[in-house]
Amino acid sequence: MAITRQGTGAAEVLATKSSACALSMEYSTYLDKVYGGWLGKCIGGTIGARFEGVKSWIELDPDALFPEVIPPNDDLDLQVLWLGVLEKKGMHLSADDLAQAWVELCWYPFCEYGIFRRNWRLGIHPPMSGRFNNQFWEHGMGCPIRSEIWGYVFPGRPEQAVRFAGMDGSLDHTGQSIAVEKMLAAMASMAFYRNDLRALIEANLAILPAGSPIERQVQTALQAYDEGLSLYMARERVVALGGFPEACDILINVPIIILALLYGKGDLKETILAALRCGYDTDCTMATAGAFVGQVLGAQGISADLRDAIGDELVMGIEYRREDMTISGLARDTARMGVLLAADSDIAIEDAPEFAPLPLSASPRKTHLTVEYAGLPCAAPGDAAAIRVNVEGSMPHTSSTIRIETPEGWDVSPREMQVDPLMRKYEFMLHAPHGVKAWPRRNLFRVLLGDTALQTTFGVAGAGLWYALGAYFHLEAPEDVPDRLQRAWHHHFASIDHPYLPEPEFDIESLYETFSRKIGKPAMLASYEHEIELDQLIGLRGPYCAYLARTIIAKRPHQTHIVIGNTDSFRLFLNGEYVGERDEHIWWTPQNNSYLVSLKEGPNLLVVKLLKQDSRDFRFTLGFRPDEGLHRERGQHFVDWDVELSDGVMF
């Protein structure tokens, strides 16, 4: 390999780019390292797939690593799709380009992937698509595992790898996960020139938010290794100091990747086995660690037993297909993009073949519009939502206006704004209608620039509308409570089993009016992110039981999963029928429980009975996933979230 200077990490490059001399590398070396990286990714992901989610220590016979059938790997699938977008858009692709390709060609609806797909279908674009209604998975591993493509197509240009990784991550994640993807992309960009993985880690740590939980966890992994701890004890320290219950969260899995790279000492098999032993999101940790070691070694440096076992077929689980469905073909196409994108940079890839130029669709866009939200992209009837329209690229040469077309019943102020050549940002206030009978989940708007064809769409989600029917508790302790008379001085008592109201028949109107009079205001609360926040209405401390009602309007009869995230006990009724319950006090996730129910066309009455035992950590969320699609037999986790339902306004 011909290198004109010693490579540096992204933090160093970003600080000294203007004074740096050019980097150069032979095309054959570049291609071999890209191929090695993709091989390492496939090898690690394939071995780890069947252990994904096992959080205990895992020992595997090194001679029995591979399954009989090579499975698809979502760690790689989206990156292959991103390569297709790059081939069409080049340096000028946007987060929206990636988002549109995902919705059209990648069906994956689970975890943060599903949150993105739901938000995009609601008209919510990146970066808000990665933030809204994504409190649990915003720091998941879904985007750090997509980092390699950006490093591979920008060898020696970590600043570009970081920029594109940031766009990618914004689809379905927020700050810390996006920062990890940026860090890993920068490392991959410079791993073509610097083989010391420990040095690459340290050089790029500054990309992580200083003092953040993920930065502390990575430092913990480095320190544990430096102190000479065994891999097992290093893992235990990471878990103890900052672990997380979710199997696919960055706070445990990114430190595992770091540990694997350190304890693997440059050996591909030992590196992926180190990641496997640590458990948790094994396909992701093993694939990412394997990609780094494979890239450093190059394909020619990977042992024949591993290469023969993985083969050359590019196995994918999404609709997108390439002309050449091989790993070696993926490497060649990736290297082609790297050569084409390096043409206008100070990176020299020597002796590269002559490649056909990128298509006209890769030309820079002239004028385009984007939308930002001042707050959450969600509203209840009567709410106002502030947005900002940005004019990007070249400004119109003639006098023009920006106006917004609204859904029925909505209003906007001002109605239009004159475009000023010196202004790039235009602020509007959207006013949700009062007095509606049905409140849609999806409300789409269109922004238009004058009489031109230039326009963009965006959405504001409709909040869920819940009507409280009362809060109830016992003054006396149950008979089986020790020191029950003394406890009664200091406690209230509540039970999910006690029928505070006649179940399942509820006089909704009377109960709602009575409770509204009791608290001195309408007992309605809006659920902006699928969450019932009882504190909006009820200030009572201590345990109590609350009943809430909601009307769900369906356009057609169908079956749907009611997906519940809870910390406490609940009971569920639909259209006067008992659905199910849980008597538990657990860690909140958005899908702790689910129930398959039938919705009739038109209004459906949903009533939930909630037990709030502890005011400090109470959470209850509820969403819908229709029992539809090619993968419905695999359960609610494999179908998209609903965006078609409406809420009925009861009073």
Structure description:
This protein is α+β, with helices and mostly antiparallel strands and 651 residues long. The protein contains 18 helices and 22 strands. It is globular and about 80 Å long. Helix content is 33%, strand content 21%.
The quaternary state of the protein chains shown equals single chain
* Average pLDDT rating: 93
Which stretches are low in confidence, meaning pLDDT under 50 for 5 or more residues running?
Answer: 1-20
What is the gyration radius calculated from CA atoms? 27 Å
What is the helical fraction, as a range of percent? 25-40%
Query: What kind of sheet is the major sheet?
Result: 8 strands, antiparallel
Helical stretch tally: 18
User: What share of the residues does DSSP label as strand, in percent?
Assistant: 15-25%
How many beta strands in the DSSP annotation? 22
- Based on CA inertia axes, which overall geometry fits? globular
In short:
33% of the residues lie in helices and 21% in strands. It has 651 residues and is an alpha+beta fold. Helix 11 (231-242) runs antiparallel to helix 12.
List descriptors.
single chain; 651 residues; alpha+beta; eight-stranded antiparallel beta sheet; five-stranded mixed beta sheet; 22 strands; 33% helix; 21% strand; globular; disordered N terminus
Blueprint (SSEs and pairs):
Elements: H1 10-16, E1 23-26, H2 27-48, H3 74-89, H4 95-105, H5 111-121, H6 148-153, H7 158-169, H8 175-190, H9 197-204, H10 213-226, H11 231-242, H12 250-264, H13 268-278, H14 282-297, H15 304-310, H16 327-341, E2 347-350, E3 367-373, E4 378-379, E5 384-393, E6 401-405, E7 411-413, E8 416-418, E9 425-431, E10 438-440, E11 442-449, E12 455-462, E13 464-472, H17 484-490, H18 508-519, E14 524-527, E15 544-554, E16 558-566, E17 570-574, E18 577-582, E19 593-599, E20 602-612, E21 620-626, E22 646-648
